């Protein structure tokens, strides 16, 4: 959709709408969407930050492996709330010691989860550290599961 949604249109939607407005760069190669509009009817699921839980026992120290485990844990949490990855409207990605060399790793991981899209809205936040020593990435998600059609 290239035109802005009107309030009346928003109140009548019954599915997630993913928008990449003209005038903004194409976020698709980086694995996200600029705007996701959710319907007024549905269950909203908030998933706390998911990460690698094997760090404390001398586990995975590699960014890619931690990212894969964090995404797998996000999927488990979404399923527990009655959602799947295609219900995700927004993610926050926290990365320790972020550098641009990590972006292609994230993009590949996002494609492995969401395929060719549509992708959720996303914010990547570089951080100096996370809750436990050795953690390199944490992902929190918000999803909307539509409960009734308008």
TrEMBL record:
PANTHER family for the chain: BLR7761 PROTEIN, YJGH FAMILY PROTEIN
InterPro entries with a match to the protein in the record: RutC-like_sf, YjgF/YER057c/UK114
SUPFAM superfamilies: YjgF-like
Name this protein carries in UniProt: Endoribonuclease l-psp
Domain of life from the UniProt record: Bacteria
Origin organism lineage: Bacteria, Pseudomonadati, Pseudomonadota, Gammaproteobacteria, Enterobacterales
Organism of this sequence: Providencia burhodogranariea DSM 19968
